[in-house]
Automatic annotation (TrEMBL):
It is found in: Membrane. Keywords: Membrane, Transmembrane, Transmembrane helix. Residues 59-487 form the Major facilitator superfamily (MFS) profile domain. This is MFS transporter, PHS family, inorganic phosphate transporter. The keyword Chloroplast does not apply.
Length: 652
């Protein structure tokens, strides 16, 4: 009986181990099957109900209408600036006032992107959109009511109105683009980019030409014969006030409609998981893995906004300088260009953005813009001598900006997970919007300085165009290496990766600071731990107090990630944190740093993380624990044998 005891224990232990290994291999096989099918199949939400489909249709209409209004507001100041410069020589010679009209809205947009990015992630996309429409409506009301002791005072009030409206317009991006992107992920991942591009960029482009239609009619009535530097009885109050007043009609319509819009299902799922609170894990993962893509999104938006807003704001002035047309004709030409070519190109770019991919589409746009800018500048005098040739060529070139703009709009909404999507979209795009502010502010000064510093002339304009061509070649280079490629890639898989990175880094922090079961049991999930407390203890506390705080903080983060036992903590800390950020720069750097063989393993770990199921950890933890127990037993047996030998030697 006694002699068979160890044998029975060994058999029972082997049976348990075999069962654990079988369960573990089955779970691993399920994960590999998911990975072989791709992240798209392995990370689907529940099937859409009829109510969900109705909500997605409402969201689509609200998105399209909102960006049509955005497009109208963006170009409302272009004709007004040209009109004021035509009528009042003091405005034509005042670079500060011209720049203020051009950038006031962009300042509002920049702050709106930052503010509403947080609001959209914390309070919800729908609430943010309603507040955005209220800001745009308030800006339009101020524009209608603009007044002053002189025309300069009225223009400055218009500047304030544009800034207020800009806050709501900036929020339109951070609340609407992530929401419609998440809805599109639910419908069709492969054509997600096309749907978002049509509802956002294409409708915004249509809106860009809407003020030209309105203002063409108003100018025909009130300022028909206004030429550069000649005030020919133009009733500018009618044009300016009605330009804002007419826009209030669609703004009110959109505001009413938005009360029926819904937050996306992906956002609702994430809200249930995160509990509406950011922490240092989010910041750590962003800084550790998201810097290259953030650089790409920021710089691309910075450069294209610099080019687009500066040339768009002063486009009619450029047209008047080059071919010498009246205000009425310059607006009519802008509208004709749009009808013939400009409004169609966004749809062409939207059609290819999923087929070519985000990076290749944007590279094509930058390459075309840079090459044609050089041609345009080189043949400047020949084109100036033929006004029709200038109009046709500039119209043709301008349409290809959409091949840059559409990926620039899409990538920030795809490159970051749902948990922080709107916030990071707002940060990246607001820093990018600074390009529009810098470009619009400096364009008149650059033009004047390269014209000899006295008055803007054609030679100064030509030198400015050379400068812009160089910026477009710079955009091509940065796009190639720093823009991530997200075509046909599941956003749900990216959400899973981000959640897993948070868990694994929380476990690593806890192991690093020596967190044990006692600390995990004692710490409260709702404890007062944050990054500021960490810095405060780092700078002003003793070494022992700092270490105690860090240990408690690490235990708090571990419990928030549902790491409640020491065994699970150790196991999750041992999992890899390899993450492919989908930029060429990171691919080349990691290949050089790791070598081809290790980089292949790096890619495999990153893909498996996108379909990782924490429920499979139970068997893995037991297997891991039993393996550790075997190693400890072997060490004890060796120690016991060595002790017996030593004692025998001593007896002898």
């Amino acid at each position: 009986m006694n002699s068979s005891g160890p044998f029975l224990e060994l058999v029972n232990e082997q049976i348990v181990r075999t069962s654990q290994e079988l369960q573990r291999s089955t779970c691993t096989l399920e994960q590999e099957t998911k990975a072989s099918k791709g992240a798209i199949d392995g990370n689907k939400l529940e099937a859409l109900t009829e109510e969900d489909k109705v909500a997605i249709r409402f969201n689509a209409f609200g998105t399209a209408a909102g960006f049509f209004v955005n497009g109208y507001m963006y170009d409302i100041n272009s004709v007004l600036l040209t009109m004021f410069s035509d009528i009042f020589p003091s405005v034509n010679d005042d670079n500060t006032l011209q720049a203020a009209v051009g950038v006031s809205m962009l300042y509002g947009v920049m702050f709106g992107l930052l503010i509403f990015g947080f609001i959209a992630d914390f309070f919800g996309r729908k609430k943010g959109l309603i507040m955005c429409s209220c800001f745009v409506l308030l800006g339009n009301i101020l524009g209608v009511a603009m007044n002053g002791t002189s025309h300069v005072g009225a223009i400055w009030m218009m500047v304030i109105a544009l800034g207020v409206a800009g806050i709501g317009m900036g929020g339109e991006y951070t609340c609407n683009v992530p929401n419609v992107m998440e809805d599109s992920e639910q419908l069709d991942t492969k054509n997600r980019g096309r749907r978002v591009a049509i509802l956002v960029m294409c409708l915004e482009t249509l809106g860009n030409y809407a003020p030209f239609v309105v203002q063409l009619i108003l100018i025909a009535i009130a300022c028909r014969n206004a030429y550069l530097g000649a005030a020919s009885g133009c009733n500018w109050n009618v044009v300016a006030r009605l330009s804002f007043g007419i826009a209030t009609i669609p703004v009110i319509t959109v505001l009413i409609f938005r009360t029926k819009m819904k937050n996306s299902l992906m956002f609702k799922k994430e809200q249930q998981r995160k509990g509406r609170r950011y922490d240092v894990l989010d910041l750590y993962v962003i800084c550790r893995h998201f810097i290259p893509r953030t650089v790409g999104t920021v710089i691309m938006w910075f450069l294209i906004d610099w080019i687009n807003y500066s040339q768009g704001t002063f486009g009619n002035l450029i047209l008047q300088h080059v071919i010498g047309v009246s205000l009425f004709k310059s607006v009519w030409l802008s509208l004709a260009e749009g009808a013939a070519w400009g409004v169609w190109m966004p749809f062409v770019a939207a059609f290819v953005v999923d087929k070519w991919g985000r990076r290749k589409t944007e590279m094509f746009g930058w390459l075309f813009l840079a090459a044609t800018q050089i041609i345009n500048t080189g043949f400047f005098w020949q084109l100036k001598a033929q006004p029709i040739a200038w109009i046709i060529w500039s119209t043709f070139v301008g349409g290809f900006q959409n091949f840059v703009f559409i990926p620039v709009y899409l990538v920030p909404a795809e490159a970051f997970p749902t948990r922080i999507r709107a916030t990071m979209y707002g940060i990246a795009s607001s820093l990018g919007k600074m390009g529009g502010i810098v470009g619009t502010t400096t364009f008149p000064t650059i033009w004047r300085n390269w014209s000899g510093g006295v008055q803007q002339n054609d030679e100064g304009l030509r030198k400015t165009m050379w400068f812009y061509g160089g910026m477009e070649f710079l955009g091509l280079i940065i796009c190639t290496f720093f823009v991530p490629e997200y075509s046909h890639r599941s956003l749900l898989g990216e959400d899973t990766r981000f959640v897993e990175l948070r868990r694994r880094y929380a476990a690593r922090f806890a192991v690093h600071w020596g967190v044990g079961q006692e600390q995990l049991d004692q710490v409260q999930v709702d404890g007062d731990f944050n990054g500021l407390g960490f810095l405060k203890n780092k700078c002003f506390s003793s070494a022992s107090q700092y270490r105690q705080y860090c240990t408690s903080f690490a235990a708090y983060l571990a419990r928030r990630e549902n790491l409640l036992t020491k065994k699970r903590l150790d196991y999750v800390a041992s999992l890899p944190v390899d993450y492919k950020d989908l930029t060429l720069f990171s691919a080349y750097w990691n290949t050089y740093r790791l070598g081809k063989q290790r980089y292949a393993e790096f890619l495999k770990n990153s893909e498996e993380m996108g379909t990782y199921d924490p429920r499979c950890e139970e068997e893995d933890i037991l297997f891991h624990s039993s393996s550790s127990f075997e190693k400890d037993s072997e060490k004890n047996d060796i120690y016991f044998e060595s002790s017996v030998i030593e004692s025998m030697k001593t007896d002898k």
